[in-house]
Amino acid sequence: MSDTTHYDLVIIGTGSGNSLVTPELEGRRIAVVEGGVFGGTCLNVGCIPTKMFVYAAEVASTIRDASRFGIDASLDQVRWTDIRDRVFGRIDPISDGGRDYRVDGGHTEAYLGHARFVSDHELEIEITRPGGHHELGSVHRITGDQVVIATGSRPHVPDVVLDSGVPFHTSDTVMRLPELPASMVILGGGYIAAEFAHIFSALGVEVRIVTRGDGLLRALDAELAAAWTDLARAQWDVRTGVEAVSLEQGESEIELTLSDGSTASGEVLLVATGRTPHTHDLGLEHTGVSTHDDGRVVVDRFGRTAVAGVWSLGDASSEHQLKHVANHEARAVAHNLAHPDDLRAFDHRFVPAAVFTHPQMACVGLTEAQAQDEGYAVTTKVQRFGDTAYGWAMEDTTGLLKAVGDAATGRLLGVHAMGPMASTLIQPAIQALSMGPSVTAHELARGQYWIHPALSEVLENALLGLHVPEDVGGDT
Ligand SMILES: Cc1cc2nc3c(=O)[nH]c(=O)nc-3n(C[C@H](O)[C@H](O)[C@H](O)COP(=O)(O)OP(=O)(O)OC[C@H]3O[C@@H](n4cnc5c(N)ncnc54)[C@H](O)[C@@H]3O)c2cc1C
Ligand SMILES: NC(=O)c1ccc[n+]([C@@H]2O[C@H](COP(=O)([O-])OP(=O)(O)OC[C@H]3O[C@@H](n4cnc5c(N)ncnc54)[C@H](O)[C@@H]3O)[C@@H](O)[C@H]2O)c1
């Protein structure tokens, strides 16, 4: 083992952690530690590759759907390896380039290995990956005045799967399959299940979903989640309210026996049963850093842990496992590292989310149930995409956008959408909510132009449809 090397700042994890090295830290001695693929989840196995696959899936779906518009087209062939290689041919060089920049860039020292705390500010790193300046297998001790835990999260795999010994994929591996299987059974009914069900079924794979919840995408507004679950049942074999009790590798398929006695099988098993903060192997027991029961590091609104000078952000500590949240927290922590006397707090008031499935889902703010629980005089309006001009153009039959408002004040409380481009469509609502409560829902609808006949008229109409008394900005 080498002598201990001291740094002003040590960053563990190169997802959002990589963006902490800002010009404001010029002159500081910084170590960046990465035990996996450089660039973290979003770039390598998360948001970016999945959305590149989703786009290809949309192209396939559009071709299949074309005859509704009087255009006869047929999907001749899906070249999986070309689809896959388009994605990773773009992403892998970005990851390698990011690593080389940190290894050779001069501003930082990169350790390509796994970090473990041995005390509050001291870490041991074993070099596990090639590409850096340290010998593979060598062990290093480093200390940092400031240490940032940005170690993200990893797939959770239930014991019943692990104990069965059957081969399985998670989102970490399924995008690199050597060939498309004929069928896939997906365990789980959340974001990852919904996105991969869309991707693989659009590319011709028969999809079966098994989830213990009584519906899919249950974290979303109940009315829209139920509507989406109905559409999912029409597309795929969906089993809800069941768990796998045993798994076996058959001749060509993996067979799951479910808690209701039925079975579900697929050539490939994808496990999508949630993600766990990646903090279990960090040696936190040697520090004063505390964790929640689910493994998340406890931080205050500035990203500070219980140990002075040790910070955390992103999936390692956040209740939102979303990249835009990790990025936001990283921007705050980057500022706080440079300006300890002028700390910037995280703002989690209006965290939006989107599920890039078919149809797409997006949300911001309170669901109807949350608004009721919080005691608002709730008013809602569900606007069908198909009742707007652009919806006619799209021949849309399933899209819905629900606005949730407070009848007492006219304020908008939340927006939930299911349909084409939902993730883009709700952005004005994210902006309006984030700007503060001074603008009522009707003022938002009438205080600006909405391009006609754009899809955004779905949101405009939903806002206008909220029942709000005239004296608080409404016209009903
Ligand atoms: C399939 C999938 C699709 C997703 N799609 C979206 C999306 O569309 N939109 C969205 O907002 N979010 C999406 N997410 C979530 C998003 O990817 C994460 O919220 C985000 O990437 C978390 O960033 P992070 O910086 O906290 O962690 P990460 O990006 O996971 O970075 C943590 C890094 O730390 C490293 N590390 C861990 N422990 C150690 C250690 N002890 N020593 C050294 N290094 C260590 C890891 O190898 C990793 O590189 C998706 C996630 C998945 C899995
Ligand atoms: N578009 C996006 O923003 C995006 C996309 C993918 C992932 N993510 C993030 O990653 C996180 C993890 O995604 P996920 O889909 O793995 O988790 P999730 O929490 O969204 O869903 C997990 C699902 O698995 C089910 N489940 C859990 N244990 C089970 C079991 N033993 N048997 C059957 N079903 C079981 C749950 O009921 C739930 O439906 C998401 O919560 C999200 O924050 C975001």
UniProtKB/TrEMBL annotation:
FAD/NAD(P)-binding domain mapped to chain residues: 7-329
Residue sites binding NAD(+) per the record: G188, G189, G190, Y191, I192, A193, A194, E195, G274
Top-rank lineage group of the source organism: Bacteria
Required co-factors: FAD
Positions that bind FAD: K51, T151, G152, S153, D315
UniProt cross-references to PROSITE patterns, sorted A to Z: PYRIDINE_REDOX_1
UniProt keyword annotations, A-Z: Disulfide bond, FAD, Flavoprotein, NAD, Nucleotide-binding, Oxidoreductase, Redox-active center
Ranges for domain Pyridine nucleotide-disulphide oxidoreductase dimerisation: 351-462
Disulfide feature: C42-C47
A Pfam family that the UniProt record links to this protein: Pyr_redox_2
Catalytic residues of the enzyme: H452 (proton acceptor)
Cofactor note: Binds 1 FAD per subunit.
Gene Ontology terms, MF aspect: dihydrolipoyl dehydrogenase (NADH) activity; flavin adenine dinucleotide binding
A GO biological process held by the record: 2-oxoglutarate metabolic process
Family: Belongs to the class-I pyridine nucleotide-disulfide oxidoreductase family.
Identification of the protein by name: Mycothione reductase
Organism, scientific name: Serinicoccus chungangensis
